[in-house]
Amino acid sequence: MFSFILRRLAATLAVLFVASFVVYQLTAISGDPLQELRTSTDQEALAKIKYLTEVLQLETPPVIRYFYWLAGAAGCLVGQCNLGISIAKGEQQVIDLLGTAMGSTLQLITLATILSILVGVTIGMTTALRQYSGYDYSVTFFAFVFYSLPIFWVAVLLKEFGAIRFNRFLGDPVLSPTTLIVIALVLGAIVTGIVGGGLATRIRTFLLSAAFTGGLLTFLNITQWLKYPSIGLVGVFLLTAMVAGVVLLLSTGFGQRRAVLIVGSMALIAAAMWMPFQYLFFYVQGFSGILLAILIMAAIGVGLGLVFGGDSKREIARAAGITGALGGLVLVIDEALQYWSTYLSLIPQKSGFISTIGAITPTIKREDNMWLTLLDGYAHLILPTAALMIVSVAGYTRYARASLLEVLNQDYIRTARAKGLTERVVIVRHAFRNAMIPIATIIAFDISGLIGGAIITERVFAWEGMGALFNAGLHAVDVNLVMGFFLVTGLFAVVGNLIADLLYSALDPRIRVS
Prior knowledge:
Layout: H1 2-28, H2 35-38, H3 45-55, H4 62-74, E1 85-86, E2 92-93, H5 94-129, H6 134-148, H7 151-171, H8 177-195, H9 199-223, H10 232-250, H11 257-272, H12 274-283, H13 287-308, H14 313-337, H15 340-346, H16 370-408, H17 411-418, H18 423-450, H19 455-460, H20 466-475, H21 479-507
Antiparallel strand pairs: 1-2
């Protein structure tokens, strides 16, 4: 494995060397970075031109100048990184600009990527299991529509309907009876399409899901939950119980009584930890408090599984640990929502909760309270995340559907069914893992591409990330800034491809990296 990693790194570094050389030469000959100064009437322009010509070594041929830049970039390996200054950003150090932009872009793409993978793969797998059904045809139609939409148009629509009009609704969030009925019927139809079955099963599923949705929305209307959202002790228990049910469905199933008891008990433990965690979040501030809460809940789940799991203790411990970690996340969200009213009082009244521009609210001091900072961050992330997700989910849906359909036609799947295994075991343990192999490749390429910055999305939402940095470098013929961008995105591409290769061997033991 170690020799394989070294061989791949050597090959990709050679590709990076050639690509960086070409990009450097093309950028250097594309224009004059001092053109604006040369046409300036400022008396200090000549001195400025002389200074920048010397600092940027503009009198040196671009071919020679590249190797000077390469020597500075190689210093990053020993902690002495020197990528030069950026004339497009007021002669700031490129390494400092990259650090700020990377943090902003990672904050933007992390949530969008995770949600896109989870939602897209889930929808794609369910459509494959309901092939040629009305649900499958509907998802296919909307996937092609969303995939073909221009991202700038999606962003503008989200600003109008997802922020401006929705913020008006949040001012007095009351759903009319007609709206309640329409939402309940639509969700009932969607759930019925996913579950499938005979006519009696479909009618029963539709009625139950529509009644549950209507009852839940009515409860939210009466309690004004949309205006004052919270989870509370009961909500923590119910949400963790739902998480436990999903984890059991995808792991051990509901046939193992011991697994059901241990994993299901995590809902009671999450509710029991609600009050102690209030003190934990008070005394342990920042990201460390959030991480500690999740780790504590995960450790409790793993411990219960190992002690009481019996012969299947490893599998049960894994399921209980995942449930515990997600239950800890529910407790974190509950704590953040307790500051909802305080946060709304600090933002401009006309702007509303969902922000349409920028990454922060200037009226909120980020060092004052971590939970206000958390709410503010996600208020600004909602729209750009949704814009990136709409296109990405459509792609993942199609790839996941095609991949699972191909796997379901394999001989070993027919053998598994002939052995009498349940459909859940066949899909989750045999088909799903192999169907994820092509998806692993797509995920790696998507992440390495998105780290370069969603230039259009960042521009529409005034998000200062890697895309905005690259755009500024191109317009100013700023070679150092463009090459700094290329260095980061190139390294992420290398790491992404390497991770994809390692995932192949993890997902399919038949694959040998040698």
